[in-house]
Every structure is written in structure tokens, then in C-alpha cells.
Write a structure and sequence with these properties.
This protein has two helices and four strands; from the N terminus they run H-E-E-H-E-E. It has about 180 residues and is α+β, with helices and mostly antiparallel strands. The chain has two domains: about 90 residues; about 70 residues, Gyrase A, domain 2. The longest helix has about 90 residues. The protein is rod-shaped, with a radius of gyration of 52 Å. InterPro entries: Extracell_DNA_Util/SecSys_Comp, PilN. It comes from Desulfofervidus auxilii.
């Protein structure tokens, strides 16, 4: 028996080799699975490495938090100490001012003619209350104070007569501004 093919040559299609195509598809899927497994393992490895780095960074951060807390406490202590130093320097300056004022007052004090009852130094304002033999003694004391550079604007606030032990004396109150030499005005 003779077989004749009546179909044109172009339309004849070769029957594909199904075994071969199935093998290629199967190998392609295996390749995809292997690539996916490789990527999965690789990414999981990176994740675990990053987790370890994160844990070590958190431990180190905890150490630095303790150090930062200590540093903050030290800064607070430093500020407190600086404030104390400022207070001490102001007190030292005021102490020196009081000593200089008292030295200047005693240097110009009229011995056996007057005495002080009260001296008050508030800031740069000095108030002197005392008793003198008379108005002339008070005036002479004021003139002496005006000549000293420490005392500025010496003012007589009040005088009044007072009898003490059968003597007629003058009670007085003076006010003046103090300027310490070398102090900024």
C-alpha cells in the first residue's frame, strides 16, 4: 500500500517531541526552585547577620546610655559648682568692699569727737548713723569723706540734738554711694 500525502508541504507540521519538551519544562522548574532556594537561604543568612549586628548595637547603645546619663549628671554638677563659684566670688568681692569701706571710715574718723551707732552697706549704698559733739564735727567728717575716692555723693539725711549724760550732742544720719577703686561703673 502506498501512501500519498495530499497536503501541501508548508502545512505539514512535525509532531513535536513531547518527551523532550516535558524534560525542558521540568528542568526549568527545577532551576527556578534551586534559584529560589538559593535566594531564600542567602536572604535568611543576611537577616540573621543583621539581627546579630542589631543586638550588638543595642547592647553597645545601652552602655552609652549609662555613660550619657553619667555625663548629664556631671554637667548638672558642673553647673551647680559654677554657680557656687560665682556666689563665692561675689561674696569675696563684697567682703573686700566692706573691709575697704571700714578702713576708709576709720581713717577719717574724728577721734574723741564722734562715734558710730550703726553702719549699713546695701549694694553700693552706705548709711552711717552716729553721734557727734556738734554740727561742725559732722560737717568736718562729711568733708573728709568727700575727699576719698571711695565715697561719692555724701548726703546728710538728718541731724537732731540729743542729751546724753548731761552733754548736748548731735545725732546724725549720712548716706553716700560707694565706688571701689578698680570696679567697673
Amino acid at each position: 500500500m502506498i501512501k500519498i500525502n495530499l497536503l501541501p508541504k508548508e502545512e505539514i507540521k512535525a509532531v513535536p517531541d513531547i518527551k523532550r519538551e516535558v524534560s525542558i519544562v521540568f528542568l526549568f522548574y527545577i532551576l527556578l526552585i534551586l534559584v529560589g532556594a538559593y535566594l531564600f537561604i542567602n536572604i535568611n543568612g543576611k537577616i540573621s547577620t543583621l539581627k546579630k549586628e542589631l543586638q550588638s548595637a543595642q547592647i553597645e547603645l545601652a552602655k552609652y546610655k549609662d555613660i550619657q546619663k553619667k555625663l548629664t549628671d556631671l554637667k548638672k554638677q558642673k553647673e551647680i559648682i559654677e554657680q557656687k563659684i560665682k556666689v563665692v566670688s561675689v561674696l569675696e568681692k563684697e567682703r573686700k568692699k566692706a573691709i575697704e569701706v571700714l578702713n576708709a571710715l576709720t581713717a577719717n574718723f574724728l577721734v574723741n569727737k564722734m562715734w558710730f551707732e550703726e553702719l549699713t552697706l546695701e549694694g553700693n549704698q552706705l548709711s552711717v548713723k552716729g553721734i557727734a559733739l556738734g554740727n561742725e564735727t559732722v560737717a568736718e567728717f562729711m568733708e573728709r569723706l568727700k575727699k576719698i575716692p571711695y565715697f561719692q555723693v555724701v548726703e546728710l539725711i538728718k541731724t537732731e540734738k540729743k542729751k546724753i549724760a548731761e552733754l548736748n550732742l548731735t545725732k546724725f544720719t549720712l548716706k553716700c554711694n560707694i565706688r571701689i577703686i578698680g570696679e567697673k561703673v
